[in-house]
Amino acid sequence: MKILVAVKPTFDIGQLKFEKDGTPLLDACPVSLGEADRCALEEAMRIKERLGATVAAATVGSSEAHYKAIRDSYAMGADEGYLVKADDPWKLDALSVASAIARVAAATGPYDLVLTGSGAGDTHASVIGPMIAGILGIPLIAGVDRLEVRGPGVVAGTCKLEDGSYTYEARTPAVVTVTSEANAPRIPNLRAILRSKGMQIREMSAEELGVDLRRLEPLSVRKYEIKRKRIIYKAEDQKGAAEASAELLAALRSEGVLS
Amino acid sequence: MRVLAYADNRSWAAQLASAADALGGDAAVFVPGRELADDAAKLYSEVFFSGLGPFEPVSYSAAFSEAARSFKPDLALLPCTNKGRSIAGLYSSAAGIRSATDVISLSARAGDSSITVRRLVYGGRAEAEFLMSAPAAICVVQGSYPERGPRGGPGQVHEVPAPDPASSVDFKPKRREGAQPEEAEVVVVAGRGIRSKEDLELVKGLARALGGAWSVTRPLAADQGWADSWVGISGLVVSPKLYIGVGVSGQPHHMMGARGSKIIVAINKDPGAPIFEECDYGIVGDLYAVVPELLKLLGGKGGDR
Description:
Strand content of chain B: 25-35%
Largest sheet of chain A: 9 strands, mixed
Low-confidence stretches of chain A: none
Radius of gyration of chain B: 21 Å
Number of helices of chain A: 7
Helix content of chain A: 25-40%
Strand content of chain A: 25-35%
Oligomer: heterodimer
Order of helices and strands of chain A: EEEHEHEHEHEEEEHEHEEH
Number of strands of chain B: 15
Strand order of the largest sheet of chain B: 7-6-5-8-4-1-2-3-9
Distance between the termini of chain B: 48 Å
Shape of chain B: globular
Low-confidence stretches of chain B: 301-305
Mean pLDDT of chain B: 92
Structural class of chain B: alpha/beta
Number of strands of chain A: 13
Order of helices and strands of chain B: EHEHEHEHEEEEEEEHEHEHEEH
Largest interface: A-B, 84 and 86 residues
């Protein structure tokens, strides 16, 4: 079995700071292999350990964080790593990234499974997996909490969606996107980390893959200004709690949200 | 601008009808089942429906694409939900067009094929403005546009043949006990300040007293297993009149699911919790002291409905 995992470095948006004028300070924001992508890698490793598989990781972008994302994938147990070179990767549009991954899959496959995180911690657009499936014309199981290989060429995944739980069963090849609830990804030991540093990363260019990488240039990016009243009551003890509660309910009644 | 919306319930049909109004031009909608078609025909001049089974992204997207081939939209508008994102990704890759998710407003210039799109980025901590040219697929955040009322005469209804699913589906609908957070006017959410599953009763009691629904944040559902679903960007996006976060710290991914609320109330003992930056009213105090007081004050009405 052959599995490709599409990964990307993700900004830790909880730690994102802004200039006074609201410009995000991305350069100062920590960036690392995304949580859901690590869960996708973990699923691949579990399949590899149970059934035997070759696992490849692929990313699109030439920043240091992108190389590190592949090395971190190696440390978790990936056998092969592909990096599609692209400057200014954060501005690539989703369809370009998905097309590049699909081309990597075609050039280095065939793969039985293409896995990726169901949504990146920073953008959370959740469209890359569906786009890869659309381009390759293969089944898609999106947002799985539980992934299972049910037999040769059959994969199943259970997803929690807005209105309930869905279990899908598809023939491979298929694209499966994995949520950050699916598992607790392994933390590589020192030996695995050291070994990962010596492993080659196969670089590929957009030209050699025949893919046109387009960027989406924002007109502006600003801190999201939250326009809320921020009226705060303090309740230091039980009496304070009673007073604050009464004040809150009175305020909510005058807002007309409480009858 | 010609707009084709995708809606799998009445509320989304009405919200996306408002969004399409803002862009001007003809608007049609695709709905995945016959039962929604008549309601949708009160909102749109044309309705496409397909007798599809439980949600399966590839066949849903193929049916939507079929409706698009017939209507030839400049813009596809979809709900920014898990399902909407999947359909948007499949549809835009099949059509070779760009997509944008987490969009909170759209505007078009008359006689121009470009659209200005405002979208949330970095887990909702920032917003970015983009100029996109049609055709494109856009996922709109819940609550960004109000639900529109019916228009004049009923629109034309067309059936689109249902494509075969790419995967077999076993669907278990969510238990619908009591009020649902997506529909309720009041939503009370429990966060990590709640110490045990039993203590969730406090939050459920408050929701009952207010005639609303309860939910939790992601750690309580995904890590503790105390609930089936949660409010947040990866779960439910709610837009009630009143949201009350009980012991909720206000992580960006959670708040993105609550921002459409008219009034946000926070109860948390940590005055530094980010939710206090994003609330209309807040009580800095121990939820175990505050919630019982609220229940006492509300006690007169609706405690045991």
